[in-house]
Structure formats: C-alpha cells, structure tokens
Design a protein that fits this description.
alpha+beta; DNA polymerase, domain 1; hpI Integrase, Chain A; three-stranded antiparallel beta sheet
C-alpha cells in the first residue's frame, strides 16, 4: 500500500459472488488439495481468505466470483481508548475517485454535516484469543498446524453472540448455557475440553489485563464454571484383531490395492502415516537395511498439507530397521514412486503431497472391500503393529523405540487396550492344561 502524509492508498482485487454459477469449476479450485477449508466452495467468506483463491485474478474462468480491481484510500479519523489510530476507508473505480470521496468526507466533518464514529476498543473473548494465538504463532510457541487447529476451535466459539461482545459484559449463564448446548448436541469430550480451555484462557488474560474483575472471572474457585462430560463415550483407537489382519493381508495380496506399499509398511513397522508420507529416498539405506524418520507431513496455518521440519514428537526422530517382510515392500515403493521435487517415496502423480484424510478414506474403502466391519482408520495399523509385537514376544522397550513413543507406558497402554484375543488364548492354554491333569485323575 502506497504511503502518503495524509492517506494510505492501494489497489485490490474485489470479488463479488456470481448470481448464477457458470457450471464449470475454475482452474484454481480444480487443483485445490484442501477444499475443506472453504467447506467445498460453499463458504464465500472463507474462499476470499484462501491463500490460493485470494491471489486468483482469472476472472474469465472463475465460476464463483466476478473479479475486478478496486482502489482504496485509508485516512485517519481519530484515536481509540488505547491511543491507537482509527482509520476510515473509501473505495472507487480509480484512486482519484477514492481520494475525492475521502476529501469530501473530511469537508463534511469540518462543516459539522456528519460526525465521525470512533470505535472504542472492545476486548471480547474472540479478540483476546485471536491476539493470543497470533502471538504464540509469531514467537514460535506453536506450529502452523496447531494454530490452524486452534482457529477451528475459535470459529466454533465465534458463532456465539456473547463471545463477540465486551468480555466484561458477558454473563455467567451465557457461558454455562453454551456448554450445556454443546453437551446436548453430542459434542465429544475432546471438543468440550478444547472449547473450555480456550474460553477460560480468555478470562485469565482479561483478568491479568484488568478487563474484568476477579468476581467476573466465572471459572475461578470451587464453584467456578465446570467443564461438562460428554454424553458420548470417548472413542479409543483399537487394533485389528488377528483374524481381521489375516483378512486384510489376504485381500491385499490378491487384489490391486491403491497405497498397497504404504499400508503394508504401516502395518509392519508401526510408523505414523505422516512420517511415511514425508519419507525421502535419501532417508533409506537398503544396503544396510534401515531408514531414518526425520520429519512428518503437517498443516500450515491455512490448513494446507506441507512437509514439516521435524517429527511429531522429539522421540519420533529414529531409525527403523528393515527385515525380510519390510525390505522388499520399501524397495518396490522406491522403484515405483512418482517424481517429486523432494524425491518423496509416497506422493501424488503430480509430485504433490497426500493428506492424511485422503489416505484414511482409501483405508476405509480397503477394509470394507476386505470384509472388515466396524469403524476403522489408518492409526489402527500402528496399534496393530504394537499389539502383534507384544503377542510375538518382542521386548516392550524395543517396540517403544520403533514406534517413537516418548515413554514405555504409551506402548504398554495400547497393548492393554487390545489384548483380549491374546488373553483368551492364554486362558485356553490354562484350561487345556487343567483338563489334562483332570484326565489323569
């Protein structure tokens, strides 16, 4: 934006929704890898914020927007309660037209024809959290992926009228009713925890900055607002039962399966999907029989899949030793990989990254075709590996290292949640032993 002593001027691309769609999708949207951001092009406001769509000026081929240039001029009209400059914008088809409107406005103010509206600073739950999350991202305290997740939480809260008004004017009952409504609507404990923590954080900050008094901090004390418990039971990611794993492997060995090598490596190494999607040829040493996990795929603040700089956790950076099962699978994957800038082993035909959701959908279809019933997801492959390792007698410390867990309890807990089949076998062994004794009496 061009600076001037009296005004700021700039040229923008203006987008207005078409009254009728033209019936074909524009090139930018057609190549988009994450339409969830704009709810599959149903949310015009989010499309305007999309980094790809935002820069699009292809008006001729855009089936959603009319696109044209707009010139804007910003002029200072006063200051708010905190001393910050308040500016008013004027737009026109040309910069001269925008400037003329701003000059005319100033003349009307001086003549007393109109009175400028000076917005007072209003610290709401939404504005407080937005500033807080922006600062955490700027200072590297959270990743872009975490920021994107937190913005989803804030979007949910933002829909409430009380969350957008001055925080000192928010009533306790408004917040309590919000949580009761979420509970009644079947929100999970995970969502309730996130929303509760975010709203409480806003009140903590408001108290620190004297926006509210201690009495207005409704979360303090034994009788403060409590987080409700969801009506839904928490979903635990289980492992495939042995019979289900056999079904899956038989189907994959007899049918052409998309992502065959990816799923088989996950099943036999316990690697996270994102870690495999970030695996490069240079990370693999087939001669020595191992590969290194250095990073994972993640999301940026706009929700686009990118290559992360590190693994999910500090213990995630590790070496995976290959065996007679995994070595030929990885070798086949390398030999049949698509070309990409980073020489990724698993990527799309155009070299772009796969997202977790797409891989997860493909796994669900695979399980359905293989005759595996019930709810499934790709993370089950990781849990299945840990469970089978325990059943096979693999040392739990070794499994922990292979899985990249921060402590041994995570590994043991996963097995404990999925050990029914194993215990049934042990119970049968015991029963057979006792029956042999009884037969000898």
């Amino acid at each position: 934006m061009e600076k001037n002593k009296e005004y700021l001027a700039g040229t923008y691309i203006k987008k207005n929704p078409r009254k009728k769609k033209r019936g074909r999708i524009c090139p930018v949207c057609a190549s988009c890898t994450d339409r969830k951001f704009c709810k599959n092009r149903k949310d015009i406001k989010l499309m305007r914020k999309c980094p790809e769509c935002k820069e699009c000026s292809d008006a001729e081929n855009c089936d959603i927007f009319y696109i044209n240039e707009e010139h804007k001029v910003l002029i200072p009209i006063g200051r708010d309660d905190d001393g910050n400059i308040i500016r008013k914008s004027f737009s026109g088809k040309t910069e001269a037209e925008a400037i003329y409107k701003s000059v005319q406005y100033q003349k009307d103010v001086e003549a007393g024809i109109i009175e400028p509206t000076l917005k007072k600073t209003m610290h709401s739950v939404v504005s407080i959290i937005q500033e807080y999350e922006d600062n955490k991202l700027k200072n590297g305290i959270i990743s872009e992926c975490t920021y994107h997740t937190n913005m989803y939480t804030l979007t949910r809260i933002k829909k409430e009228a009380w969350a957008n008004k001055k925080i000192a004017d928010v009533k306790r009952k408004e917040i309590e009713d919000f949580f009761l409504k979420e509970r009644a609507n079947g929100m999970s404990n995970s969502i309730l925890r996130k929303d509760f923590a975010m709203i409480r954080t806003a009140f903590d900050i408001a108290l620190d900055r004297d926006y509210i008094t201690a009495k207005q901090h409704y979360f303090l004390g034994k009788y403060g607002i409590m987080r409700p418990i969801s009506l839904k039971k928490d979903k635990k990611v289980g492992a495939l039962k042995l019979q289900e794993q056999v079904k899956l492997m038989e189907y994959m060995n007899t049918h052409k399966v998309k992502h065959h090598d990816l799923f088989m490596l996950c099943l036999n190494t316990g690697i996270r999907i994102g870690e495999l999607l970030a695996l490069e040829v240079q990370d693999v040493n087939l001669k020595e029989g191992y590969f290194d996990i250095r990073r994972t795929t993640t999301l940026n603040k706009e929700g686009k899949v990118i290559l992360g700089e590190t693994t999910k956790t500090s213990s995630g950076e590790r070496m995976i030793v290959l065996n007679e099962i995994t070595k030929p699978i990885l070798q086949h994957a390398i030999e049949n990989r698509n070309s990409s800038e980073d020489d990724l082993i698993f990527c799309k035909k155009d070299g772009s990254l796969y997202g977790d959701s797409g891989i997860n959908s493909a796994f669900k279809r695979l399980c359905k075709n293989a005759g595996i019933k019930g709810s499934v997801n790709t993370h089950m492959l990781r849990h299945t590996f840990i469970t089978r390792s325990k059943e096979a007698g693999v040392d739990v410390d070794a499994t922990k290292t292979i899985a990249g867990h921060s402590n041994i309890h995570l590994t043991q807990d996963i097995y404990n949640e999925n050990q029914k089949d194993y215990l049934e076998k042990q119970a049968k062994v015991y029963a057979n032993y006792i029956m042999e004794i009884q037969n000898q009496i």
